[in-house]
Design a protein that fits this description.
- The protein is α/β, with parallel strands linked by helices and 417 residues long.
- The chain is built from 21 helices and nine strands.
- The strands form two sheets. The protein has a six-stranded mixed beta sheet, sandwiched between helices. A three-stranded mixed beta sheet has the order 1-2-9.
- Helix 5 packs parallel to helix 8.
- The longest helix has 21 residues.
- It is flat, with a radius of gyration of 26 Å.
- The relative contact order is 0.08.
């Protein structure tokens, strides 16, 4: 859709001689639906529309503990844009499920939105992910705004992605931003589908979309506290135990209050407290963050957890290194197993050549973790059929197996000289 067409629709635009800046949707930004009667009317419009439905959500991950959807944005040809408050309608969403769960959805970076939509009982019958499509089509930058500008000639008004979407009422400029996120998704889908078809990659994309659609939830991390920013500064098992104690106490409080953990206590404060090793409330309150008015009422509790870590028997202290069922860091392979290092180098070179030839990121050609695991502990037989079976067992899609099994088979036969 060009700028002349935008003028015909009444879309508010700003032309600067380059891409057209969209400040609000063509038909204006609709009110947020919070009542069952309004939802029923919107669902009737969606059901009467045609084609795929553009879907997006807004969460409050920087503010809330639980990754809920606080706004659901929908747009379908012939139906217009619909904005839904899923919190207000938590017990009345069945009409929406009845419509949406039979349709193809168009999302950008679908894996970010599908979990919170599944919590609402919303699951697509089919999926088109415009971010993933952009990667497969060979675009180096695949943010929604970038692809819309490159392929459709528009710049989207941005600026509220990190906002607290649990806030009520939602400001008008936030709603404009949210509605624009689905305004052009279906048109973007059509452009990307045509380009993937021209490149011979459409079947690859369909397999990738289906993999995203049907992916199970990731298993919980065994020791999530190890992801504390700055934890690498703590070397001793006793210090790591203190990080674990504070992290777990913070997580429990964040759950109860539905606050983002970083807003309860920043990671930097946890690491500083463990490093300083305060013995009294006064010493703890002398540290940055803990001296604040809000934090002062919790310092006695934080100190108790630090003291608990000091009292742990040695048998209960965490290992300095994170447990893993995978291979060691790649930079240690040459010393630990030179042949494995040679296999990985050969595999990476072959896969990079394929990816460059096909114009797609090498990580989309084959998961790097699967490549590393296969090269570290190759199958007993390394012929193409055996390698293909290993790749399938590791979750590789048929198109990936077809492109990579042969070259990986050769790479697995490489040895250090």
């Amino acid at each position: 859709m060009g700028s002349a067409e935008a003028e015909d629709t009444g879309m508010e635009i700003e032309s600067t001689g380059g891409p057209v800046l969209l400040r609000e949707p063509a038909e204006g930004t609709p009110p947020v639906i919070t009542e069952p009667s309004a939802l029923a009317e919107a669902c009737a419009r969606l059901a009467a529309g045609t084609g795929a439905v553009a879907v997006d959500t807004e969460r409050a991950s920087g503010y809330r503990y639980w990754p809920k959807a606080y706004l659901v944005q929908l747009r379908r040809e012939g139906s217009g844009t619909v904005l839904i408050d899923p919190i207000a309608l938590a017990d009345d969403l069945q009409p929406l499920r009845d419509v949406l769960n039979d349709l193809e959805w168009v999302l950008h970076a679908a894996s970010q939105d599908l979990p919170c939509l599944a919590e609402l009982g919303l699951r697509p019958a089919a999926l088109f992910d415009t971010e993933l499509a952009g990667r497969l089509a060979g675009y180096e930058r695949v943010a929604l705004g970038t692809l819309v500008e490159l392929l459709l000639g528009y710049t989207l008004e941005k600026g509220h992605s990190a906002a607290d979407w649990s806030k009520r009422p939602l400001p008008v400029d936030w709603l404009n931003y949210a509605a624009l996120d689905v305004e052009l998704l279906v048109q973007l889908r059509e452009k990307l589908e045509a380009e993937l078809g021209a490149q011979g990659k459409l079947e690859w994309a369909r397999q990738e979309f289906e993999n995203v659609r049907t992916a199970p939830p990731p298993p919980p991390r065994a020791e999530p506290w190890r992801r504390t920013s700055g934890v690498h500064k703590i070397r001793s098992p006793r210090g790591l135990a203190a990080v674990r104690e504070l992290w777990q106490a913070r997580d429990e409080l964040a759950r109860k209050r539905d606050r983002a953990p970083s807003r309860i206590l920043p990671d930097s404060a946890i690491v500083n407290a463990v490093t300083a090793d305060p013995k009294t409330v006064e010493e703890l309150q002398a540290l940055p963050v803990f001296s604040g008015r809000v934090q002062r009422k919790y310092t006695a509790s934080w100190l108790r957890h630090l003291q608990a870590a000091r009292a742990l028997p040695a048998s209960e202290l965490p290992s300095p290194s994170q447990p893993t069922d995978g291979p060691p860091p790649v930079n240690r392979w040459a010393d630990k197993d030179p042949d494995a290092a040679a296999r990985l180098a050969a595999a990476r070179a072959a896969l990079t050549a394929i990816a460059e030839d096909r114009r797609l990121p090498v990580e989309n050609l084959l998961l790097p973790d699967l490549v590393r695991r296969t090269c570290w502990r190759p199958p007993a037989e390394t012929d193409e059929d055996a390698v293909a079976e290993v790749l399938r067992a590791g979750g590789a899609r048929p198109w990936q197996v077809e492109l990579t099994a042969s070259v990986l088979s050769k790479a697995l036969q490489a040895t250090a000289s």
